[in-house]
Amino acid sequence: MSQRLFLAAIFLILGYGFWISPEFKYISAGVAIFLFGMLFLEEGFQSFSGGLLQRILHKSTNNLAKSLTFGLVTTALVQSSSLVSVITISFLSSGLLSLAAGIGIVFGANLGTTTGAWLIAGLGLKVNIAAYAMPMLVFGVVLAFQKSKKLKGVGSILAGLGFLFLGIHYMKEGFETFKDTIELAQFALPGYAGVFVYGAIGIVATVIMQSSHATMVIIITALAAGQITYENALALAIGANVGTTVTAIIGAMSANIQGKRLAAAHLVFNLATGLIAILFIYQLAWLVEAISRSVGIASDDYALKLAVFHTVFNLLGIVLMVPFINYLVVFLERVMGEVKTALDQPKYLDAAAGKYPDSAVNAVRNETNRLYIKGLKIVAKGIGLSLGDIHTQHTRQTPIQTAQFDDVDIDQQYERHIKPIFSAIILFMSQSSVSSQDKQFGDFHWLRVANKQIVDAVKDVKHMHKNILRYANAHNSEIRRGYDLLRLQIANTVAAIELIRSTEDNSSVIMLDQLKLELLHHDRNINAEIEQMIRSGKISANMATSLINDSAYTYNICDQLIQVCETLYVIHNPNFTLAQRSVALDDDEILKIIDKPEQRP
Amino acid sequence: MSMQSDFRDSLKKAFKGLKKKTRKIPKQADDLREVLLLLKQREKILQHKLNHEKDSVKAQRIRNEIEIIHGQREKGLRLLRGVNEGEALPPL
Fold this sequence. Notes:
heterodimer; A: mainly alpha; Methane Monooxygenase Hydroxylase, Chain G, domain 1; 79% helix; B: mainly alpha; 2 helices; 0% strand
């Protein structure tokens, strides 16, 4: 409701403005064309972000200096801190980035966005950029109609730049002619009253336009036309810097807790920087004068001096805030804790992570990993053990203890720990940006299969859990031994998987194949033992059918768990080279080894 | 039309082949050689271990691992031959 009222109020103000002043139409159309150009530009860069930007982001953010540089350079190149912030939030949400690296990128992006002011003040006002806008628009639109994704992207970038230039031209024209009818400079406010009032106007203008870039263009063109005073322009620039955090906050609304923490860090940084700039505005203005004189900027070139000011106070903010990044991370993690619910919730899946193929695959991989660990815990509980027990008993080679058996409601465990996450993963995959044409589509396929295998393993353990309970304390020692063999088989598989999970080097490819080989070996041995028990009449027909069925369940559980392990940690593990993964044996090759005469038990 | 598409396809193939030969294949061959070397080293260590192992269960596990390494080395050598002849590693 409030949003509709807000929209109606904006329409009324714009309508009134158009009615009383034709020049206002020019300025507003200039802003609208500029924003339209930014949309095109973002779309163009997004079509390239399916690989290159993500790869660079992934590799160049392992320390703070790199994160800052990445934020600075990419924002300067794409001329949109919003795009960089949104990509950062999506990567942070999917677990590809740490919060500290994300904060570093956002801080760098804040400095990168000041290059826009330099471009407008240095180029936009001095060169007739509308002359360049027209061919750019024509070439851009022709390219945007092409089928190739890359050509379309280039077209969108060209058209976006064309619209940006055209928008600046219209704003410039509007303010030039506006000057003849209304002298806005007469509303100038001196002293701190002006700083606060114009700072607030800067915030409101940026919140409405969702772009500090657009606000800066208006400020610079108005300043160049003499419609606002230099002092008030400085306050407007500070306000624009604070107002821009709203874009990140809106972007983080659909993100997970990490994304929200990043948006909060962005707000803290811009508020702190803004506050410092307001408190020391006169000292900063003096510093800007000194820098401008030393680099040869004319004393009446207020537009360029504003660009210097914009850069200086953002740089000052970074210098002051960088030493506190780690404290900020600790503070945000403490204040913005995760909300615990009765049903397990996904940790890495959110709309922000689904926007880009790489981050979407990584989010699904991390979530599947979580689901797998939960699945392993339930499987362990299903055979009367915990993951800790399995690890200890496996390393000490102690036999499985049957006495300490608790009844576990596997159905309830499934509904609480597996189903909500599994459903969220499937929903996320269907709604994410990964299409069948993307190279990440293959990973999605394997991860979908892995999720199904985890669910199947948990459901299988549910089926055999009843019999394990029934025969755990049976008088017939043979059936007890039979079920202990099945439990041992699962326990050994889980223990080996835990070892592979923690290894992640060349030997995991060997360990995985060895595990497959041993599963086949044990399955044959167990089946031979069961047959022996039945033949010798040591177990009843009823017991025999249960044991045969549960032996099949045991094989399926182990096989599914091994296949998930293969997908997550070995064959589809991006940390291994193709050569390392290629030597892994397939089922037929393992069968050949097991059927060699000397391997027969 | 078909001549044009044939020409385009043959150009594409030529470029693909060139790309494979110039970039991908030497890197894959190097990676495979490294993997094979590591497998050979591991096999030597395991053979030594097996000679001194008294526990039959543990000895069987070592034998299994040696068999797996044998299999992986054979597969790796087969793939390396293919890579040396200009074939890229098949996708997984």
